Amino acid sequence: MGHALQTGDKELARAQLASDVMIYEGGRVERSADEYAHHHMLSDMKYLAAMKSETLEHQVTILGNTAISASRSHTKGTYKGKERNYQGMETMVLEKQNGKWKIKHIHWSH
Amino acid sequence: MTKFVAITMLCMLAFSSNAHDKSHMNDEKQITHIIHQIKYGWENGDGKPFRKHFLDFKGARYFESGGQNVGLTDLVEHHVEPEKDALVFLNLDFSNIQIHIEDEFAWALADTAVKGEVRKSGKTFDKTGFQTFLFKKVDGDWKVLHTHSSSRNRK
Fold first, then answer.
1. Which of residues 38-97 of B touch A (CB under 8 A)?
2. What range defines the domain where residue A86 resides?
3. Which residues of B touch A69 (CB under 8 A)?
4. Contacts of A15 (CB under 8 A, 6+ apart)
5. Do A27 and B129 touch (CB under 8 A)?
6. Looking at beta carbons, which residues of chain B come within 8 Å of A86?
7. C-alpha distance from A110 to closest chain B C-alpha (Å)
8. Which residues from chain B sit within 8 angstroms of residue A27, using beta carbons?
9. Model ipTM?
10. Is residue B2 pLDDT above 70, yes or no?
11. 0.95 exceeded by pTM
């Protein structure tokens, strides 16, 4: 998902999401894949393309048909004239649907 | 005979479905109770609910708006308990709680509202945001594996 957003691959990013995904981002919420794809996904792609992000820590746990992912990253760069340098946190819940892992929930914060 | 077998099977199916619903309801009840205990713990700077309901394991991480606590002891001793002295008061509300259960794993999402006053500066804060809780069933009890909260100033 992170790679798809960073490289601006809309189809790949959309394909990772379950249709009823719930996305928390910076105190806001997006309640479906369509909502995210039509709202913040494009601005997230533009923003991430301008940033350099390094994963500091990443844990994945699989429990049957559900997986959880918790990661911490360091992001640095300049966007719209503003310098950014911060630690970001990401929590994901994924579910295996017809043999493919789909993201059911994302929580991003920094 | 066929009628008897069909009725017996229907009864068994109904019993099994009822038992599953009851078990699901009990799971939701237990998870909701834990969330309320966590609220109590934060508001009162009391680490006991965290020690009771969180799974203490080496890789445990608890995220809050770009920061993290590493392990349960760090969360309790460096975050939950110090707030008792650092804050004059803290009100934390969880609403719109949605619980998803998949066998031995569960996740819950909630809207949050947090208000408080910092003792040292007298500054107050009033924020809204979201909370993610991840749970695992261990020996019949639900345990918190991970939490993630983020908020911003109320508009």
1. 59, 61, 63-68
2. 2-109
3. none
4. none
5. yes
6. 66
7. 4
8. 127-130, 150-152
9. 0.93
10. no
11. no
A64: left (phi over 0), alpha (psi -120 to 50) or beta: left
pLDDT tens profile B99-154: 999 999 999 999 999 999 999 999 999 999 999 999 999 999 999 999 999 999 99
Report the domain count for chain A. Answer: 1
Is A71 in contact with A96 (CB distance < 8 Å)? no
**Residue A5: in which H helix or E strand, if any?**
helix A2-7
Question: What is the CATH T-level fold of the domain B20-153, as seen in this structure?
Answer: Nuclear Transport Factor 2; Chain: A, (3.10.450)
Q: Provide the CA A96 distance to its chain's centre, in angstroms.
A: 18
Per-residue pLDDT tens over the stretch B69-89: 999 999 999 999 999 999 999
CB-CB contact of B131 with B94 (8 Å):
yes
Q: What is the CATH number of the domain that holds A28?
A: 3.10.450.50
Confidence of residue B23 (pLDDT cuts 50, 70, 90): confident
Q: Which of B135, B148, B112 is nearest to B54 (CA)?
A: B135
Cβ of B63 and A66 within 8 Å?
A: no
Q: Does any CB of chain B come closer than 8 Å to the CB of residue A88?
A: yes
